[in-house]
Amino acid sequence: MSSQIHTQRMPGLQCPRCNNFIPTSIHELLAANYLRCPLCGLQLNIDRQQSEKALKALAKVELAQKQVDEKSTFKR
User: Fold this and answer.
1) DSSP character for 39?
2) Both ends of the chain: CA-CA distance in Å?
3) Which of 1, 4, 11, 48 yields a CA-CA distance of 20 to 30 A from 24?
Protein backbone atom coordinates (compact mmCIF):
# COMPACT_ATOMS: atom_id res chain seq x y z
CA MET A 1 0.00 0.00 0.00
CA SER A 2 1.54 3.27 -1.02
CA SER A 3 1.38 6.24 1.25
CA GLN A 4 0.55 9.60 -0.23
CA ILE A 5 1.44 12.82 1.49
CA HIS A 6 -1.04 15.59 0.83
CA THR A 7 0.35 19.05 1.24
CA GLN A 8 -1.95 21.99 1.50
CA ARG A 9 -0.84 25.18 -0.09
CA MET A 10 -1.66 28.34 1.76
CA PRO A 11 -4.61 30.05 0.06
CA GLY A 12 -3.94 33.27 -1.76
CA LEU A 13 -3.09 34.75 -5.13
CA GLN A 14 -0.20 36.12 -7.15
CA CYS A 15 0.37 39.86 -7.14
CA PRO A 16 -0.24 41.22 -10.66
CA ARG A 17 2.57 43.75 -10.20
CA CYS A 18 5.47 41.77 -8.70
CA ASN A 19 4.26 38.12 -8.83
CA ASN A 20 4.78 37.74 -5.08
CA PHE A 21 2.32 35.45 -3.33
CA ILE A 22 -0.39 37.31 -1.37
CA PRO A 23 -1.67 35.02 1.37
CA THR A 24 -5.35 35.34 2.25
CA SER A 25 -8.25 33.32 3.57
CA ILE A 26 -11.92 32.97 2.78
CA HIS A 27 -12.71 34.88 5.97
CA GLU A 28 -10.40 37.73 4.94
CA LEU A 29 -11.92 37.90 1.44
CA LEU A 30 -15.40 38.10 2.98
CA ALA A 31 -14.47 40.74 5.56
CA ALA A 32 -11.84 42.93 3.90
CA ASN A 33 -12.30 45.73 1.41
CA TYR A 34 -8.90 45.11 -0.13
CA LEU A 35 -5.80 42.90 -0.09
CA ARG A 36 -2.30 44.33 -0.01
CA CYS A 37 0.81 42.69 -1.44
CA PRO A 38 3.31 42.26 1.41
CA LEU A 39 6.24 42.78 -0.98
CA CYS A 40 5.40 45.72 -3.24
CA GLY A 41 2.43 47.20 -1.34
CA LEU A 42 -0.02 47.05 -4.25
CA GLN A 43 -3.57 47.41 -2.95
CA LEU A 44 -6.14 45.18 -4.65
CA ASN A 45 -9.62 46.52 -3.97
CA ILE A 46 -12.48 44.03 -3.66
CA ASP A 47 -15.50 45.23 -5.65
CA ARG A 48 -18.27 43.77 -3.50
CA GLN A 49 -21.05 44.61 -5.97
CA GLN A 50 -19.32 43.07 -8.98
CA SER A 51 -18.12 40.09 -6.89
CA GLU A 52 -21.45 39.43 -5.16
CA LYS A 53 -21.99 35.94 -6.61
CA ALA A 54 -18.43 34.85 -5.85
CA LEU A 55 -18.61 36.23 -2.31
CA LYS A 56 -21.90 34.39 -1.67
CA ALA A 57 -20.29 31.17 -2.88
CA LEU A 58 -17.28 31.77 -0.61
CA ALA A 59 -19.60 32.37 2.34
CA LYS A 60 -21.22 28.97 1.68
CA VAL A 61 -17.79 27.31 1.54
CA GLU A 62 -16.77 29.00 4.80
CA LEU A 63 -19.97 27.84 6.51
CA ALA A 64 -19.53 24.27 5.24
CA GLN A 65 -15.91 24.22 6.43
CA LYS A 66 -16.96 25.48 9.85
CA GLN A 67 -19.62 22.75 10.09
CA VAL A 68 -17.10 20.06 9.12
CA ASP A 69 -14.62 21.37 11.69
CA GLU A 70 -17.28 21.38 14.42
CA LYS A 71 -18.41 17.83 13.68
CA SER A 72 -14.99 16.34 13.07
CA THR A 73 -13.85 13.79 15.61
CA PHE A 74 -10.35 13.82 14.17
CA LYS A 75 -8.25 16.43 15.93
CA ARG A 76 -4.94 17.52 14.47
Assistant:
1) T
2) 23
3) 4
